[in-house]
Amino acid sequence: MSQKSKMFLSGVVEGFYGRPWTMSQRKELFRREQKWGLNAYLYAPKDDYKHRMYWRDLYSLEEAEQLMTLISAARERNVEFIYAISPGLDITFSNPKELAALKRKLSQVCGFGCRSFALLFDDIETEMCPADKEAFSSFAEAQVSVTNQVFLHLDEPHTFLFCPTDYCAAFCSPSVPLSAYLNTVGEKLNAGIDILWTGPKVVSQDISVASIEEVSAVLRRPPVIWDNIHANDYDPQRMFLGPFKNRPTELIPKLRGVLTNPNCEFELNFVAVHTLATWCSSGHRDVSMDGDDQGSDYNPHEALRLALTDWLVEFSRADQPDGAGAGRSKRQASDEEPMQTEGYAPGPRDNPLYTAEPLTLDDLMLLSELFYLPYEHGATAVLMLQELHWLRREDSERDKEEWRRRAEKFDDMCSAVVRMFNRLSNVPNRIVLYDLYNYICDIKSGVTMAKAFVKTLGGQTPHAALALTDDPEPWGFRGGLSGEFQRMLPSHGIRDLFRSPPATRVYTIRPCTPRDQPEVQKIFKEMQIETQQKVELVGDRLVEGHVTPSQNCSLILDDVAGVCGYAFALSDAKTAMTKAQYPETMLQDFPSVMAVQIHSRVPDHSTAKRLIEQMLSALRDSGSKGVFSEFRSKDRRMFDFLKTLDVFQVLKVDGLPTNLVIMGTKL
Questions:
Q1: Which of 213, 337, 397, 587 has a CA that sits 20 to 30 A from residue 644's CA?
Q2: Which segments carry the region annotation Disordered (predicted)?
Q3: CA-CA distance, 609 to 642, in Å (whole number)?
Q4: Exposed, middle or buried, 396 (CB in 10 Å: 0-12/13-18/19+)?
Q5: 106 vs 111: CA distance, rounded Å
Q6: 10-residue block means of pLDDT along the chain (667 residues)?
Q7: Active site residue 123
Q8: What is 9-283's CATH number, 3.40.50.1970, 3.20.20.80, 3.40.190.150, 3.30.230.10?
Q9: What pLDDT score was predicted for residue 503?
Q10: Is it true that domain 361-488 has CATH number 1.20.58.240?
Q11: CATH architecture designation of domain 508-666
Q12: d(CA 116, CA 622)
């Protein structure tokens, strides 16, 4: 069958890691696909045991009945149900019994009424077992051999998809055109089998026409895009509510289809699926493989607004997660208003009854911009980050009016997020709300903390629960163990979507060696010349080499020009003191000392923060419970630099000379 005679596949792949969707959710998906003009559903949930881990096992009678009902439901909505199986975890390709088990399993599903299939070999080990090495010259040849035989066994179904192990350009060695694996697949895979492809990366920011033409030449057929742009199974703190974008509609005549693999939570995919449908219909109105590009009027911003307008209607439906598994309720919010205590009417001096504010389209636009796309924040999120960055960097006393104006602007934006959260929390459709709740609760907490921080910068006192202290409440330090691991890694922060200034330089944090001393002393002397203050500091003795730093407590920051910063620390500061320089009460809480200096050519605060946090981690491992750092009062550049990092706080020390500033943090 020629590619031109095949229908362009457009729809959804349920291919994420995590809890699979329910049968009722899948039926709702089919309803939406039909309404919006999509035509395909690929059944491939990674955590369905009989799809992947126990692929040899046949379905039970109960499971078979569910699948038959699902396949029938898709057919009623004119949605092509594509059943996928993933045997790659443990299949022995050369064993005839394995091939027989695969054929038996797919024949069973064929008996359920399924006529379209997919064989997936993604996310598996590439090393073949000894038996397969004897039978096949390559891993690609083994996969192709089994796939071709299964395809023929099923009488060459109209739609049969193959997912290669190297399913994106980043996996191809040394390149897509020169990949031995892809070239074998393209040459030997039956021409009636279509191939899945995710683009340049697993999660591709852009998919260009040129990149598709390149892979199509190797595969000898146009690919079906398995699009992970809205997938969130790799990060439990992120959902993606931005539009389908950065895929020109000129791609459509060069593809066999596009299937989006969206957020794990079903109800969060209204925008992802809706905007994909708009993209398909805008770029190729009849959605067929007739070759010529008809132009495009697809605008992702307009598509997003259209999707959110329709989604707003869904929020008004009084749906409850009652476990009934029946179809979705069609009752409007006005039919099921939550009731206050019957007959109660507050008096003139009583509190008025609480009235929930209705959710608005602006609220959903804000929600989308806060949770936009993997490589891109929405406009409001970027603006909030820019304002907070400016407020942190600028002195609130330098230009009071400008600082106050921008602080109020940031406060208003934070309040809008809280207002959105409150409105979402009161929507009639609790099914949608509960899929959203963890995410909106997290962002509300984050902006509330940021709002309190700005008030602190402006000299106000926030609520005690939001105060930024050395002993915060648990919501003041987010991320758990995973977050702590990430903060210790050298790559932490380099892929933040908001970076100012852009992180174009490459920095290295490494242990100090004797060869570094001349460069360290140069930075140290530049600071002394800059401040022109003769103050005896404990940290100076560490930098000058009079006192040896504690184990793992001498670090260098490098860029392409050489040493651009350092940090030295001593777990017991008293051992470096020639006299009682500081009160015993301070040293009890902050027993360690750290000397840190960053060259003025380093604009990237996150790099300095990583250097300091690595040092704090070493001190914490040594058993220290606190560390202080000394600065000459005229070293304003370094003092302001550290102040923006939110790592240290200025300590109030009795009897401290006016030309000395002490900052510290508890560990």
A1: 587
A2: 319-352
A3: 8
A4: middle
A5: 9
A6: 73 90 96 97 88 93 95 97 95 96 97 96 91 95 97 95 96 93 97 97 95 97 97 91 96 97 96 98 56 63 96 86 45 46 79 86 96 93 91 77 92 96 94 94 91 84 64 66 67 57 65 91 85 82 92 90 92 87 90 91 78 90 92 79 78 86 91
A7: yes
A8: 3.20.20.80
A9: 43
A10: yes
A11: 3-Layer(aba) Sandwich (3.40)
A12: 61
SS3 state at 40? strand
3-class SS letters over 232-277: CCCCCCCCCCCCCCCCCHHHHHHCCEEEECCCCCHHHHHHHHHHHH
CA pair distance 248, 245, nearest whole angstrom: 8
Long-range contacts (CB closer than 8 Å, 24 or more residues apart) made by 28-34: 28/266, 28/327, 28/328, 29/266, 29/273, 30/73, 30/74, 30/76, 30/77, 30/79, 31/77, 32/270, 32/273, 32/274, 33/77, 33/79, 33/273, 33/277, 34/77, 34/78, 34/79
* Cβ-contact 182, 166 below 8 angstroms: yes
Q: Which amino acid is at 308?
A: L
- CB contact set of 146 (below 8 Å; sequence gap of 6+): 91, 93, 99, 102, 119
Catalytic-role residue among 48, 90, 123, 589: 123
- d(CA 27, CA 136) in angstroms, rounded, equals 42
Cα–Cα distance, 38 to 287 (Å, whole number): 9
For the record, the structure tokens of 444 come out as 């509300």
- Tokens representing 177 are 């055109």
Q: Give the CA radius of gyration of the chain.
A: 30
Helix (H) / strand (E) containing 72: helix 61-76
Q: What residues form DSSP beta bridges with 116? A: 82, 159
Picking from 72, 83, 69, the residue whose alpha carbon sits closest to that of residue 120 is 83
Length, in residues, of the chain: 667
Tokens 């500081």 belong to residue: 582
User: pLDDT tens digits, residue range 471-527?
Assistant: 666 666 666 676 676 666 655 555 566 654 444 467 888 999 999 999 999 998 888
pLDDT tens profile 264-275: 999 999 999 999
Q: How far apart are CA 193 and CA 157, in angstroms?
A: 9
Q: Please give the C-alpha separations between residue 282 and each of 33, 257, 296, in angstroms, as whole numbers.
A: 16, 15, 6
Residues 8 and 286: beta-carbon distance below 8 Å:
no
The CB density around residue 392, as the number of other CB atoms within 10 Å, is: 16
Structure tokens at 469: 């202290």
Is residue 542 within a helix (H) or strand (E), and if so which, with residue range?
A: helix 538-544
Question: What pLDDT digit, counting tens, does each position of 425-467 carry?
Answer: 999 999 999 999 999 999 998 899 889 888 888 877 766 666 6
Question: Per DSSP, which regions of 107-179 are E strands?
Answer: 116-120, 159-163
